[in-house]
Amino acid sequence: MSNSFSKQHNLLALFGGTFDPIHFGHLRPVQALAQQVGLEKVILLPNHVPPHRPQPEATPSQRLEMVKLAIQNAPLFAIDTRELEKNSPSYTIETLVELRQEIGPEKPLAFIIGQDSLLSINKWHGWDHILDNCHLLVCSRPGYATQFTDPKMQNWLLEHQTTDPIALNQVANGYIFIGDTPLVNISATEIREKLSSGDSCQDLIPDAVLQYIHQQHLYQQ
């Protein structure tokens, strides 16, 4: 095994979300990204109080249970509950700084976001320090622009962007990698609407999660 290949398994990645509910639009692009960049682990970070969006319909414990059920046969994934245990808004930068202190300055760390999040990242709290702590791995999203309208932000993207997965594994932080991920054009909002209307979501949500949703009578009007 070449040295560069063995280094490909150093990279640890985080993927945050409300997961209300978790669905294939979360899981499949991340699994594709993991293959592209050689991720050893993707740690799912369920949010407790998302700062930029409406509050979740399911309780924190229900959302955590759905995440556990979704990944029970997927060894790529693990769960970190630190954000779920907070009663205050979960700011990504605070979690990244905390994790960076735990794993040390040298281990490559990445945070996975969608293309829509990348294009609004300058609205995030402490966004300009994110690349000081990790790489950004970006999942393609259907219908979203591929570049910033603001020239300063576009220059920031071009300055940090790489197309080389090996580079992500060789340094601890600082790169942006835009993955060629499957375009799963479904949102949790649409899924909640379908569930509320009694429409089938079998192709959108893992079976075990769907069973749990029905058992708990979640997302019913």
UniProtKB/TrEMBL annotation:
Which reactions does this protein catalyse? nicotinate beta-D-ribonucleotide + ATP + H(+) = deamido-NAD(+) + diphosphate
**Which GO molecular function annotation, any one, does this entry have?**
nicotinate-nucleotide adenylyltransferase activity
Task: List the pathway annotation.
Answer: Cofactor biosynthesis; NAD(+) biosynthesis; deamido-NAD(+) from nicotinate D-ribonucleotide: step 1/1
Q: Which InterPro entries match?
A: Cyt_trans-like (IPR004821), NadD/NMNAT (IPR005248), Rossmann-like_a/b/a_fold (IPR014729)
The enzyme's first-digit EC class, named in words, is transferase
Write out the entry's keywords from A to Z.
ATP-binding, NAD, Nucleotide-binding, Nucleotidyltransferase, Pyridine nucleotide biosynthesis, Transferase
Q: Which Gene3D superfamilies match?
A: HUPs
Per the record's keyword annotation, is Chaperone included, yes or no? Answer: no
| One GO term (biological process) | NAD+ biosynthetic process
Record keyword RNA-binding present: no
Q: Which residues form the Cytidyltransferase-like domain?
A: 14-194
Instruction: Give the EC number.
Output: 2.7.7.18
Q: Name one Pfam family in it.
A: CTP_transf_like
What does this protein do, in the record's words? Catalyzes the reversible adenylation of nicotinate mononucleotide (NaMN) to nicotinic acid adenine dinucleotide (NaAD).
Query: Which family is it part of?
Result: Belongs to the NadD family.
| Protein name per Swiss-Prot or TrEMBL | Probable nicotinate-nucleotide adenylyltransferase
